[in-house]
């Protein structure tokens, strides 16, 4: 019976094989051609070095108290707060790490979302209470944004950190980034904490010129001003750069020189910040706290591509930092000193891991008490 489909010609025993069928038959019949092996999709995991704190450094003096600061790129706070597994992780982080200050980056909020997120955070963090300051993008919706929260309750004898002057400042580094909601400054008696989300150079490195030659330069100028005011300075956040070869898993791949965060220009620019010093001073003003404490650590990353599924294999980059006044690591007379800086990569909920800076601070006499 003829096929009802005019484009279909039935194949019978008497029909000559088609050209395609002859090719298949020839390929299968060839005894000398090896059958190609299926390519393996297995990826090797990158080992993570242990980072064990120095017990002598971590010992508190009789008049000192510990202060713990967390920096975490949250990759969209509203979405994060809607997931019970993420909010459970946040609460676990606050409780287990005895957090005094938490800095979020990439909140992606608008001004109209702040009250909603503040209420939700207050619910999650009961019985702890936090004061907060937010910077949001006014130039583009669902973009950038940072927030800093500082604990203010007095439950269980907790003593809140104090500020003798203007406590908060939003922006101030450069005009363009201010419109993108990239910084909040917290001024406390013992130190100034600058929470930043440094601009990404973007797909095709479209913002590399702005990032390296404008934003980074203005950030260095801003940090210099804070330094000359005589306060301890802590810069924390997603700095969007993997500075050293040990700060990303594949430095040997040439293509990484054209990837945002690992270009030679971005890495050199961050190096300029760490080398910044006064004309008559013999040491740099700023130190990458983690790398200072763990100079040889490898495989310790803060970001993994979710799209590539890289976290399971620890194929990541260290993009999140605490950069501190060098005196906080060497000078015990500054009223504050660094105890430790760690990457808390066991906490989930974002494509970034939280980073923790632990300080010891001594009481600072207030002007009205002197």
What this model shows, in words?
With 370 residues, the chain is of the alpha+beta class. 25% of the residues lie in helices and 20% in strands. It has ten helices and 14 strands. It has helices at residues 19-29, 55-58, 77-81, 84-96, 114-125, 175-178, 208-228, 264-275, 289-293, 327-330, and strands at residues 65-73, 101-105, 130-135, 146-151, 168-170, 183-187, 192-197, 233-238, 286-288, 303-304, 316-317, 320-325, 336-343, 355-361. The strands form three sheets. It has a six-stranded mixed β-sheet. The protein has a six-stranded mixed β-sheet with strand order 5-6-7-8-12-9. Helix 7 runs parallel beside helix 8. Mean pLDDT is 88; it is low at 1-14 and 24-33.
Summed up:
With 370 residues, the chain is of the alpha+beta class. It has helices at 19-29, 55-58, 77-81, 84-96, 114-125, 175-178, 208-228, 264-275, 289-293, 327-330; strands at 65-73, 101-105, 130-135, 146-151, 168-170, 183-187, 192-197, 233-238, 286-288, 303-304, 316-317, 320-325, 336-343, 355-361.
Describe the sheet with the most strands. 6 strands, mixed
Strand tally: 14
Strand order of the largest sheet: 3-4-2-1-14-13
Structural class comes to alpha+beta
Helicity, in percent?
10-25%
In DSSP terms (H or I, runs of 4 or more residues), the helix count works out at: 10
The N- to C-terminal Cα distance equals 108 Å
Estimate the strand proportion.
15-25%
Assembly type: single chain
User: If you compute it from the alpha carbons, what radius of gyration comes out, rounded to the nearest whole angstrom?
Assistant: 27 Å
Global shape: globular
